[in-house]
Each structure stands twice: as C-alpha cells, then as structure tokens.
Amino acid sequence: MNTPSHKALVPFVSVKNMMQLVHRVGIEKMLTGLADAIEQDFLRWPLFDKTPRVASHSEVGVIELMPTSDGETYGFKYVNGHPKNTHEGLQTVTAFGLLADVYTGYPLLLSEMTLLTALRTAATSAMAARHLAPKGAHTMAMIGNGAQSEFQCIAFAAVCGIKSVNLYDIDRAASEKAARNLAGFGITTVICDTPERAIQGAQIITTCTADKQNATILTENMIGEGVHINAIGGDCPGKTELSARILERATTFVEYPPQTRIEGELQQMSDDYPVTELWQVITGEKVGRKDAHQITLFDSVGFAIEDFSALRFVRDHVNGTDLVEMLDLLADPDDPRDLFGMFLRASPDTTTLVV
Ligand code: NAD
Questions:
Q1: Does 346 map to a domain?
Q2: Is residue 87 domain-shared with residue 14, that is, in the same domain?
Q3: Distances in whole angstroms, Cα of residue 171 to Cα of each of 142, 204, 216, 232, 322
Q4: Largest CA distance in the chain
Q5: How far is the CA of 13 from the centre of ligand 1 (A)?
Q6: Are 162 and 223 found together in one domain?
Q7: Tell me, what's the pLDDT at 353?
Q8: Element of type H or E holding 148
Q9: Which single residue of 116, 170, 173, 189 has CA 20 to 30 Å from 44?
Q10: Residue 79 Cβ < 6 Å to ligand 1
C-alpha cells in the first residue's frame, strides 16, 4: 500500500487558513495573545537553545534560518529580507516555519509565516513597550508605512492603549494605504509630510523602513527626553535607521545581544556599549524604564524564540479545526527499515522497473 499512515501526516497552515485564523480569533485578541505567549517564553529564556540566525547575504537581500528549542519542541523559521522586492511587485519579507517534536524529530506543524511574522513582530514590539514606554503613552509616530506598519499600530493600540498614530513614509501612497487600512480600528491616524511632524507629540516612535543602507531616519535632535523608540527596520548588517548619537543618549534593550550586535542599530556601537536583555526586564532581574526623562530604545531585530512562541500559539488554535491541511511530507514505511520496499511497492508496474 502506498497510502501514508495518519501518524506521518503533518498539519499545514496555509496563508488562506492563517488569515481565517486571525479573522476568527480577532486581530486585536490575536496580537494580545501573541504578546502574552512571547512574554511567557521570555520568562523561561535560559532554557532555550540560542544562536544568532544563520544568514546568507547577497547584494540585494538576505535569506535567514532561525532555529531554537525548549528541549521538548524544536522550531525554525525561513525568512528573507529584500528591500528592492516591492519595486518588482514582491514583498520585502516572506517566511514559513516549522515545529518538531524533540523526542522523535518528527515535524508537528508546518506553517506560512509571512503574515505570522508581521503579527509576532508587532506583538513583540508592543510587549517590549508594555515594559519600557512612558506611562500613559497615547500617541505613536509610525515611520515607514509598508507591510508591517498596520500590524504595529493595531498591536500598540491593543496592548499599550495607543489612541493616535502619526504616519510618515517617503512614499505618501504608503501612508494613505495604512490610513485606509486602519480606518475602523478605533485609531486616529494623521498623515504627516515630514518625520519631524510625525514625532511631534508622540511618546512612542516606531521606525519600520526598508533600505539596504545605513540610513538616518531619526537624527539626534529629533529625539526629546522621555520617549520610547521601537526600532524595527535595522535588522541586517549594513542596514540601520538611527543616528548613533541617539544610542549614546538612550538606554538600549535587545533580544539576544550576539545577534543584535551583528544586525541591529548596535552595529554602529563598540562591543562594550551596554545593553539590557529584554527577558531580564520581564523576569524582574533588570530594571526597564527608570524615570519619565529616560529615552528607551528597543533595538529589535527579531529572534527565533518569538517565532517559536507564535508557532505554538497557532498550533494550539488550529489543532482539531478545519484550518489545517494534512501534508504527506514524511515517508512512513510500515517497517521503518524498509524504506526501499515502500518505494518499490509504489511503482505503477513492478515488472518493468527501470533504474
Ligand atoms: P516594506 O518594504 O513593505 O515597507 C517599508 C516602507 O518604508 C516603504 O513603504 C518605504 O517607502 C518606507 N521607507 C523607506 N525609506 C524610508 C525613509 N527614509 N523614511 C520613511 N519611510 C521610508 O517593508 P516591511 O515588510 O514593512 O518591513 C520594514 C522593515 O522591517 C524591513 O527592513 C524589514 O526587514 C524589517 N523587519 C524587521 C522585523 C523585526 O523583527 N525587527 C520583522 C519584520 C520586518
């Protein structure tokens, strides 16, 4: 028999079904749930395998693998970053990922992660801001209004209580798209002509631009005391968004220092530039925001544990529902040592086998 046994079928979440999941759960609830799931895993940070992601760079972009394990479950994400893609009608970032059982090594879930990456990045940003942003923050500047931007805005509204977002992008059409998409989510949007206007009155500044260069989206004189900066776009060697002078004034919080020093705004600083690991703020080992005057910076690059948390969240919500398709991904012979026999029996005509 060539029919695969059920134990070897791998649940798969397609883009269509991921969209359905988000609609069923509700995007605000999903972002809040993801923020909580990521926070829970940051609380048990020391037990995870950790490594800077494995990156394959080209002149136009990067392809990365992001693995981790908590000892029971293993996960990885495949993700790319190609800023030039949007000009060719393609996305800057696409991704898919997998969870596996550490005991058997068998995959437990394969999932689209382009949409899930936008959700988990926004949830991580908002979770970090919950610990770092000034109390009572109500307005966010959103600089860079591409694929990630609406997710960021909704996460900050749902998790941190942001009421109003000042949108700025070098391409006004991107800001208009974001404002259109955000209508109906209870967030006031203001399209701004300059980044200076966007940061006026904002207690939180999110930078989420894509350009493969050391850009200066925010200069030092634009940053007043007391703000929280959520820097998302600088996430690859040679790709940063902030003036180094801002880092000199700010207290900087990171996911995993060995990766952020390679990929984040930290590239611009010496190896002894002090950083605080976000997980230690969450466990209470380190202090987050100290006072209302401090500039806090979350130098986000995206870390494997966030994807692991997001995949587990998805698995818990789709198992046993119609949102998974079962994939024949693993060979599963009745006799585990008779892989070749399984292959032979699959021949349409066993008498005319040609090698
Ligand atoms: P995108 O290409 O869809 O959008 C980027 C936007 O930035 C575009 O609208 C572009 O016009 C705008 N932009 C470029 N230069 C600008 C400037 N100087 N001022 C204002 N706007 C400018 O990209 P995306 O999918 O939204 O991703 C944005 C960035 O976030 C990328 O660099 C990506 O690699 C990064 N990212 C980081 C994480 C993380 O975890 N930190 C996760 C996902 C994506």
A1: no
A2: yes
A3: 13, 22, 17, 18, 40
A4: 81
A5: 26
A6: yes
A7: 53
A8: none
A9: 116
A10: no
Question: What pLDDT does 351 receive?
Answer: 56
CATH number of 279's domain: 3.40.50.720
239 domain residue, yes or no: yes
Q: Is the CB of 117 under 6 A from ligand 1?
A: yes
Characterize 176-185 residue by residue with b for buried, 16 or more Cβ atoms within 10 angstroms of its Cβ, and e for exposed: ebbbebbeee
Predicted model pTM: 0.95
Can you give the pLDDT at residue 331? 94
Distance 209 CA to ligand 1 centre (A): 3
324: containing domain: 6-115+306-336
Determine if ligand 1 sits within 6 Å of the CB of residue 67: no
Q: Are residue 87 and residue 196 in the same domain, yes or no? A: no
Q: Whose CA is closest to atom 15 on ligand 1? A: 209
User: Is the same domain home to 133 and 225?
Assistant: yes
| Rounded average pLDDT per 10-residue block, the chain, 355 residues | 59 98 98 98 98 96 97 98 95 97 97 98 98 98 97 98 98 98 97 98 97 91 97 94 97 98 96 98 98 98 98 97 97 95 88 53
**Domains: count for the chain:** 2
**Does the annotation count 235 as an active-site position?**
yes
Q: Choosing from 41, 235, 299, 307, which is the catalytic residue?
A: 235
Could you tell me if the CB of 288 is within 6 A of ligand 1? no
DSSP-derived secondary structure for 62-117 = EEEEEEEE-SSEEEEEEEEE-GGGGGGTS-S--EEEEEEETTT--EEEEEE-HHHH
